[in-house]
Structure formats: C-alpha cells, structure tokens
Amino acid sequence: MRFLSAFLILLFPALALAGADTLRVDLRDRPPEMWSIDGRPTGPLVKVLEVAAERAGLHLEWRYAPFARSLADLREGRIDLVPRVLPDPERDRYLHYLPSIGTQDKDILFAIRPTRQVERYEDLAPLRIGVKRSSLYFPRFDADTALNKQPAVDDDILVRMFRAGRIDAIAVLDKAAIDTAFDNIRFRDYAYAGLREPIRIENRFAVSQKLYDSSRAALYDRLGRELDAMRRNGDVVSIYREQGVEPPTP
C-alpha cells in the first residue's frame, strides 16, 4: 500500500490535466468508514461518494495522503475534495462544505498503558499525549495549550511512538483505526482510559473554497445535491448497512 500510495502522490500533479468533470479526492485510513487496500479506496464513505459522483456525471481521481497535507492542498486549490472533515473557524476560511450525509455520535477516547489511570480531564495534565496533526477532538482539549501534545501525521506513527514510550497516551477519535494500527504492529499492551468525551459530528465532505470561487462551483453544487438526495432517500444508510457499518443518522 505504501508503494502505491507514494506512486499516486507522485502522479498527482498530472491529474491537473484531467477533464473538467474529474474531481481530485484525498483518502486517509479511517476504518471502518474508509481506508486503502493495496492502493484501492474502500469503505462505505468511499462508496457513497462514488455513487453520488456517478449520478452527478463526475469522475473521481483518488490520492492517499496525510490529513495535514490534504488540508494544505485544499487551501491552495491543488485538490478538490476530502471526505469527513470537521469544521472549525480556521478551516472555514478556506473550505466549502457539501451537505451533510448524516450525524454520528462518537466518544473521544484516550489509549493508555493498562497500569495507568486517567479518569478525569485533569489527569491528562502530566501526560505526553499523541495527537494526529491537524485533527480536531473536542473544544476544551483542542484549545488547551497547557497540555503536552505530541503531533504525528498518522495512526501508524502514533502507535509506534506509544510502544517506544515516547508518549503516554493517544487521543482517539476513531477507535477502529487505532486498534487496527496497534494490531498491525502486534502490540497489545494498551487499554482505554475511563475518561471519554462524547461528541456529535456532521459527516461532511469538504471542497476547496479557492476552487469553488473560481470555476468549479457548479460541479461541487451538483455533487452536493446528489449527496443530499442520498441522505434523504435512505441510500446512505443502505450503503453503510450493506458493508456492515453503523450508518450516520439522516
């Protein structure tokens, strides 16, 4: 997967030469909703976008990339779209959000050593906490500059930092993704803290505001109408259930 991903990244500048109805889309591993198998995008969120694009008469060109790079390329108009992006005031300046495909209730968790106890927010104070670069968790945590947060580009690096003792905890938005990353390195010496923060998110695709304001607004709006229709007519729920994944609430 790494080789093919690197190949796609090197190839991506050439995608600017693709047809006007081709959207350049970034992918990152967020199982069970989306991930890459041997360079091939898969998961219900990928399927939702593919169906909506087909109905809108659009083509998709996928690239596997770290989330921070995807945000930077959206800001500069080098790519068109990234799935499942949470809004915040800084991002809102350079992103345009397509209609939500539904809401999801999640818990922000903290992976820790089984011998450690983290039951209250205040228990985070002495810890070195691994976070994914450019990711949002919950407002108090995101704004807390007193915490010792150690950023990394992806889950694979975070779990290796944890195994090596370079961090004491990992802030977790996607439990399945972290569990998969730990499983990939055959590491089991972790648990989840009693501290957890419930959040509700709107599952949205974000597009480049720079491109929206230039020449691609009609394409993005066309795709947005199809996504909205799929949410309302139950297609989103059906796709998630067909793949055995809990669907967003319409």
From TrEMBL:
Q: Looking at the record's lineage, which domain of life comes first?
A: Bacteria
Keywords noted in UniProt: Signal
Protein's name in the database: Solute-binding protein family 3/N-terminal domain-containing protein
Q: Which residues constitute the signal peptide according to the record? A: 1-18
Residues of the Solute-binding protein family 3/N-terminal domain:
30-241
Identify its protein family: Belongs to the bacterial solute-binding protein 3 family.
| Residues spanning the membrane | none
